[in-house]
Write a structure and sequence with these properties.
By secondary structure, this protein is an alpha+beta fold. Helix 15 crosses helix 17. It is elongated, with a radius of gyration of 35 Å.
C-alpha cells in the first residue's frame, strides 16, 4: 500500500507541475503578445486594415531680389503599385512589367519592376513606388490602361524657369526632392517643408472600403528664399560672359558681382553650364561645380592691391616712396624677373601699381616683412573660409609662416605662391575700396512664407576693420589711375570713373607650371570715388596668343559694369569723352618702326615676335581711345612678349 500511495503521489505532483508549466507558458505568451509585441502587432494590423499615401509638401520657391522666380515646385505625377490588388486585375506580373519597361525606358530594369508588381504572400508590402515625375505621354498611357492596383498619385517636381541661369548657385534636388548641392542643399531643411499623409481603410484585397472614413494630415509647404542676386544683373553678366567664352575660346570663364558695402552677391557666373530641366547626369557631373566659391587659383597681379594696402596701412611705405625696376630683382641670390622685358625704371607707388611692376612689389613685400604682411593677409580673410551661406566653402592656400623664405615672401607680394578662390579675392578687395571693412558675403536676403510674410531677414555682417578709411581712399584713387592710365584701360566705361587691377596668373599641373597657359583676370569697381558695385572676371586658358588679363578679362568686365551702372540709374559724372585716335596701318613694317608709329599716335603697344609685323589688333583705321592697346605680331616668333604698359 505504501509503495502504491507514493506512486500516485508522484503522478499527482507531475501532473500539477505540468499544469503549472502549461499555465506559465500561456501567461508568458499572453504577456508577450499583449504587452511586448503589442505595438508591432497593432502596426501590422493597421497596415493590413489601412492604406497610407504620402502628400508631398511644396518645396519653397527661390526668388531673386526683385521677385523673379528662379526655382519653383510644380505639379507632377508618380506611379505607384499595390501588388495584392494587382494580382486580382487579370494581368500577369510579367505582362505588366513588360508594358512598364517599354513605357518608362531602359533605366528601369525588368527585374526591379517585376519585384514590385509580383505579389508574394507574406513578403510584398502594401504599396510600392514604380517611377516618379512622369511626363504627359506616360501619364496618359497609365490612365488609359486603367488597371486596378496600378495608379497615379500627385507629386511635386522642381523646375528652374530661367534654365541654366545661376544654376551652380541654386544647385539641384534629387528624385525625392531633397537638396543635392548649392542653395538647395544649404537651405534644404527650410525649403523642404513637412510631408503630409492620406490614411484610408482598406478591404482584404487592399482596395478602399466604400464609404469609409479618410484621415488627411495636411502637408506644410517649405519657406521661400529671397536672394541678394538681381536677375537683371545676372543676365547682363551671363550674356557678356557667354560671348567672352566664345571669343577667347577659353576653357572656362567666371564672373562675380558684389555690393562692396554689404557683401551681398548680385550676380555669379560659371561657364560652361547646363540646363537643369533637360540635363543628363553627365552634364550635371561636368558642370554643376560652383568654381567661383570652391576652386582655388593663383591670383597673379590682382593680389598686388593687398600688398600695397598692407604696406600703406602699416607705414612700411608712404605716398612719396619710390622703387626701381631693372627688369628683375635678386632675393637671397635668386633672380626673379619682372613680367616686362623692358625695365620700368624708377617709379612712384602709383606708377608701380599702374605698371604692375613685380620688382617694385617684391621690394614692398620685403619692406613690410613676413609677420606684418601675414597679419594683414589673415585680416583680409585669406587662409580661411568666407562664411558665405552656401553648401560648401574653401579657404584657399597660403604657405605656413614658419616655412616662408624671403623668396616666397617676394613672390606672394605680387600674387604667386598663394592660392585663393574668386569669391575670397573679391570679398577681400571690397574691404580695400569700401572704407576698410571686411564683410561676409551672402546669397540669401530673407526667407518668407507663401503669404509674403518675412520670417527671417539677413543683415550685412561686418567681420572686421582691416585698413583705415584714409588708406582705402588712397587705394581707390590709385586703382582709378590703373584704369585711366595703366594696364586696366580696356575696362574703362564712358562717362564713369572705374577703378581696378588686371592680373595674369600662371597655371600648374601636377605641381609644374604650364608654359603658355594662364588665367587672365580683372578686378574692378565703380564709381571709383564711391563704389556701388564691384566685379571680378576670370578667363581660364584663353586660346589666344595674347591671353593677358588686360585683353581677355578687362574689356568684358567693363561692358558688364556699363550695363549695371545704367541699370542702377547711376548718372555719368565724366562729361568729357576720352580723346580718340585712328589706329595706323603698321603691317609690313619692322617691329621697331611699328612701335614708333603707334606710340606717336598715342597708343600703347604689345609685341609678340620680331621681324616684320604680320598682324595687328585692332585693325588699321579703327578709331579707339587714346592710350588704348594695340597688339602686333612679328613674322619671327620669340619666347617672350614685350608689353608697354599692360599686364
Amino acid at each position: 500500500m505504501g509503495v502504491k500511495a507514493n506512486r500516485y503521489k508522484n503522478r499527482l505532483l507531475m501532473v500539477c507541475l505540468a499544469m503549472i508549466l502549461a499555465f506559465s507558458i500561456i501567461v508568458g505568451a499572453l504577456f508577450y503578445w499583449q504587452i511586448i509585441a503589442s505595438d508591432r502587432l497593432q502596426r501590422k494590423a493597421l497596415g493590413q486594415w489601412t492604406s497610407t499615401s504620402t502628400v508631398s509638401a511644396s518645396r519653397g520657391t527661390i526668388y531673386d531680389s526683385t521677385g523673379e522666380a528662379l526655382a519653383i515646385s510644380g505639379a507632377s505625377k508618380t506611379l505607384n503599385v499595390k501588388p495584392k490588388t494587382l494580382s486580382n486585375s487579370g494581368y500577369s506580373p510579367e505582362n505588366i512589367t513588360t508594358m512598364l519597361v517599354q513605357l518608362l525606358g531602359e533605366k528601369y530594369s525588368f527585374e526591379t519592376i517585376f519585384k514590385k508588381v509580383n505579389y508574394v504572400k507574406g513578403k510584398s508590402l502594401g504599396e510600392y513606388t514604380i517611377a516618379r515625375h512622369l511626363n504627359n505621354e506616360q501619364i496618359a498611357y497609365i490612365e488609359a490602361l486603367n488597371i486596378k492596383g496600378l495608379y497615379l498619385v500627385d507629386d511635386v517636381k522642381r523646375y528652374y524657369p530661367k534654365g541654366s541661369s545661376l544654376i551652380q548657385v541654386l544647385g539641384s534636388v534629387n528624385i525625392d526632392g531633397v537638396g543635392s548641392d548649392g542653395l538647395e542643399l544649404k537651405y534644404d531643411k527650410q525649403l523642404r517643408g513637412l510631408t503630409g499623409k492620406l490614411i484610408s481603410s482598406t478591404n482584404v484585397s487592399g482596395g478602399q472600403i466604400p464609404g469609409s472614413d479618410q484621415r488627411y494630415i495636411d502637408a506644410t509647404n517649405g519657406v521661400n528664399l529671397n536672394l541678394t542676386v538681381d536677375y537683371a544683373m545676372q543676365s547682363f553678366a551671363e550674356n557678356i560672359m557667354h560671348r567672352c567664352l566664345t571669343e577667347t575660346k577659353a576653357k572656362a570663364v567666371r564672373c562675380i558681382v558684389m555690393d562692396p558695402k554689404t557683401g551681398a552677391i548680385k550676380a555669379m557666373v560659371n561657364l560652361p553650364d547646363y540646363d537643369p530641366n533637360t540635363a543628363t547626369s553627365e552634364d550635371i557631373k561636368a558642370y554643376s561645380r560652383n568654381s567661383c566659391v570652391l576652386d582655388t587659383y593663383e591670383p597673379g597681379s590682382t593680389f598686388k592691391i593687398f600688398t600695397m594696402s598692407a604696406a600703406l596701412e602699416s607705414g612700411a611705405i608712404n605716398e612719396s616712396s619710390t622703387f626701381h625696376c631693372s627688369g628683375y630683382h635678386i632675393v637671397d641670390g635668386e633672380k626673379i624677373k619682372c613680367w616686362r622685358t623692358v625695365p620700368h625704371g624708377t617709379q612712384s607707388i602709383t606708377q608701380a601699381l599702374q605698371n604692375s611692376c613685380n620688382p617694385a612689389f617684391m621690394q614692398i613685400g620685403l619692406k613690410i616683412g613676413q609677420k606684418t604682411l601675414y597679419e594683414y593677409l589673415y585680416n583680409f580673410g585669406f587662409n580661411t573660409t568666407t562664411g558665405v551661406d552656401f553648401s560648401a566653402d574653401q579657404s584657399g592656400i597660403i604657405l605656413a609662416p614658419k616655412y616662408v623664405k624671403n623668396t616666397d615672401l617676394a613672390r606672394i607680394s605680387f600674387g604667386q605662391s598663394i592660392a585663393v578662390t574668386p569669391l575670397q579675392l573679391l570679398t577681400a578687395a571690397c574691404a580695400v575700396i569700401n572704407g576698410g571693412t571686411l564683410y561676409q558675403p551672402y546669397f540669401v536676403q530673407s526667407m518668407s512664407d507663401d503669404n509674403g510674410k518675412t520670417l527671417v531677414e539677413n543683415k550685412p555682417v561686418a567681420v572686421r576693420q582691416v585698413i583705415s578709411e584714409k588708406t582705402s581712399a588712397l587705394m581707390r584713387q590709385m586703382l582709378l589711375s590703373v584704369v585711366s592710365e595703366g594696364g586696366g584701360k580696356n575696362a574703362q566705361v564712358e562717362g564713369y570713373k572705374v577703378g581696378g587691377k588686371t592680373g595674369t596668373a600662371q597655371k600648374y599641373r601636377d605641381g609644374v607650371i604650364v608654359q603658355g597657359v594662364h588665367i587672365g583676370s580683372f578686378l574692378g569697381f565703380a564709381p571709383a570715388d564711391d563704389p556701388k558695385i564691384a566685379i571680378l572676371v576670370t578667363v581660364d586658358e584663353a586660346q589666344m596668343y595674347n591671353d593677358y588679363g588686360s585683353v581677355t578679362a578687362a574689356p568684358y568686365a567693363g561692358e558688364i559694369l556699363q550695363k549695371i551702372l545704367q541699370y542702377m540709374q547711376i548718372k555719368p559724372t565724366e562729361t568729357e569723352k576720352p580723346e580718340q585716335v585712328t589706329v595706323p596701318n603698321v603691317k609690313g613694317l619692322t617691329v621697331e618702326m611699328a612701335v614708333s608709329r603707334l606710340k606717336d599716335a598715342g597708343l600703347l603697344v604689345e609685341i609678340n615676335g620680331t621681324g616684320t609685323v604680320s598682324t595687328q589688333t585692332p585693325a588699321a583705321n579703327v578709331k579707339v581711345d587714346k592710350n588704348s592697346i594695340v597688339t602686333i605680331k612679328g613674322s619671327e616668333a620669340v619666347d617672350t612678349t614685350v608689353h608697354y604698359g599692360i599686364d
